[in-house]
Amino acid sequence: MRIAVVGAGVAGLAAARTVAIADHEVVVYETAGAVGGRVASRQLGPYLFDTGATSIAPRGKALEGAMLGELDTSDLVPLTKSVYTIQYGRISPGDTAKAKIQRYVYRSGNVRLPEMLAAGLDVRFATPVDRIREVDRCYEVAGERYEAVVVSAPIPETEEILASLGDPRRFANARYRPCLSVLLGYAVDAGDRPYHALLEPEQRHPLTWLSFESIKSPGRAPEGHTALVAQLSPVASVALFNDSDADIVAETSVHVARLLGEKFTQPEATSVVRWRYSQPETTALFDTVNRPGQRVVVASDGVMGGRVEYAYESGVMAARLLLEDPLAR
């Protein structure tokens, strides 16, 4: 069976890898110039940031077997510090149950995971797919024909692709929120802290997540420096989404300095990453969206949940659904 996968995020790569392991031909089409989707990393001078998924928690899902048992673990760093909460400007210990969940990061950036998942796959970069055509009981994707397709784009984009095929499936329950990730490098030592990140659980403050990249993993900043990723709330992200990077950094820096102190007023390295489809606030159900016998299936965090391990799980499930088809035997 020859299968096309639209999107080289974690869900798409999981589907493609599962198909390839089963000895079927698979081609992955990716709009961007790199794999990973929202599992992304960026280097700014001596600072290294995870701009999307801050950590990865396999939680016993299919990703655990791949990440810990099949892929190289030499770059993997178990997180030993937990997430604290911000309430009314005060920092306090977070949910003790959640603190027991084992989380990991990659020393060279979390993008290392999708890079390893993509090894050996035929990935066509800079190849956007906005439509699929059915021709002679096959599906035409980017000018080539396939017997089946996995669509792993964010749900709003998936809906448009399926509409081009005349596919009536709808995802009324799947809604995404935007997020601005602000990368900040400071020539200041954050000191020894009992946490690697801060969360504002009510999401009422503009600053809802602050990841200390230089605490969670070695080598993210020079000695005596601090690398931070500040993620803004959905409301703040919508309000500032089209503003200049300079204005977004200035606004974010004020909130960081109020929380951490005046020495964090002036970052020396900055950048802004705009995630239009950051995480699904609500999701559709995989089994409702995808039925046995369909040859165009959907894999996405929008049909399972907004975490890396759920995206991976959806990709594996989508691939298995196709491989169970008699055509695949």
Textual characterization of the structure:
This protein is α/β, with parallel strands linked by helices and 329 residues long. The protein folds into 2 domains: 1-36 and 118-174 and 283-329, FAD/NAD(P)-binding domain (3-Layer(bba) Sandwich); 40-111 and 175-281, Polyamine Oxidase, Chain A, domain 2. Helices cover 27% and strands 30% of the residues. The chain has helices spanning 10-21, 62-70, 96-99, 112-117, 155-164, 213-216, 234-240, 245-260, 286-289, 308-323; strands at 2-6, 25-29, 41-44, 47-50, 76-78, 82-87, 90-93, 104-106, 122-124, 133-135, 138-141, 144-146, 148-151, 175-186, 195-199, 207-212, 226-232, 269-282, 296-298. Strands 7-6-15-16-17-14-18 form a 7-stranded mixed beta sheet. A 5-stranded parallel beta sheet has the order 9-2-1-13-19, with helices on one face. Strand 11 (138-141) and strand 12 (144-146) form a beta hairpin. Helix 1 packs parallel to helix 10 (308-323).
Total helices: the number is 10
What share of the residues lie within helices? 25-40%
Question: CATH topology of the largest domain, anyone?
Answer: Polyamine Oxidase, Chain A, domain 2
- Strand arrangement in the largest pleated sheet: 7-6-15-16-17-14-18
Overall pLDDT level: 94
Given the helix and strand composition, which structural class is it?
alpha/beta
Question: What is shown here, in short?
Answer:
The chain is of the alpha/beta class and 329 residues long.
